[in-house]
């Protein structure tokens, strides 16, 4: 455990064995001399903590008496943030280093939440553009094969 004042370590306590579960407790009390007349926008902090637990499935964060937890990662994010039912059940894919969840709705426009290295990229970026292009390419290829089967039969797919 360490204690800081004005960005400088004032006490560095040795690590002690414990029977508690893994984790870390952080207590932050802003210094009025450094931060002036500060205030928190609770809704903003809550949103950031929710996003953090969505991106770190299984993580539990307790903040000001509220518990933040996500069992299903980005699938929980979509379910919690969708204003209406999707056109089809949520598609949720989770791998070792990537997670994707998406669906489509009837509303006009689009809503997306994209993250890179844990950071919310509210304006999308090249990774979102590449993801969209890959989905379109996959769907086009799928239906192209269906059309070839219908027109030429199964033999043309075996070449």
Secondary structure elements and pairings:
Elements (H helix, E strand, L loop, with lengths): L1 E4 L2 E5 L19 H4 L6 H14 L4 E4 L2 E4 L4 H8 L9 E4 L4 E4 L12 E2 L2 E2 L5 H27 L7
Antiparallel strand pairs: 1-2, 3-4, 5-6, 7-8
Helix pairs in contact: 2-3
Question: How would you describe this protein?
Answer:
This protein has 159 residues and is of the alpha+beta class. It contains four helices and eight strands, in the order ββααββαββββα. The chain has helices at 32-35, 42-55, 74-81, 126-152, and strands at residues 2-5, 8-12, 60-63, 66-69, 91-94, 99-102, 115-116, 119-120. The strands form four sheets. It has a two-stranded antiparallel sheet. Strands 3-4 form a two-stranded antiparallel ribbon. A two-stranded antiparallel sheet has the order 5-6. Strand 1 and strand 2 (8-12) form a beta hairpin. The N and C termini lie far apart (66 Å). The mean pLDDT is 85.
What coarse outline follows from CA principal-axis ratios?
Answer: elongated
Bin the helical content: 25-40%
What strand line-up does the widest sheet have?
1-2
Number of strands: 8
Distance between the termini: 66 Å
Tell me the strand percentage band: 15-25%
Overall radius of gyration: 23 Å
List the uncertain runs: none
Average residue-wise pLDDT: 85
Please report the number of helical segments.
4
Order of helices and strands: EEHHEEHEEEEH
Structural class: alpha+beta
- How many strands, which pairing sense, and closed or not: the largest β-sheet? 2 strands, antiparallel
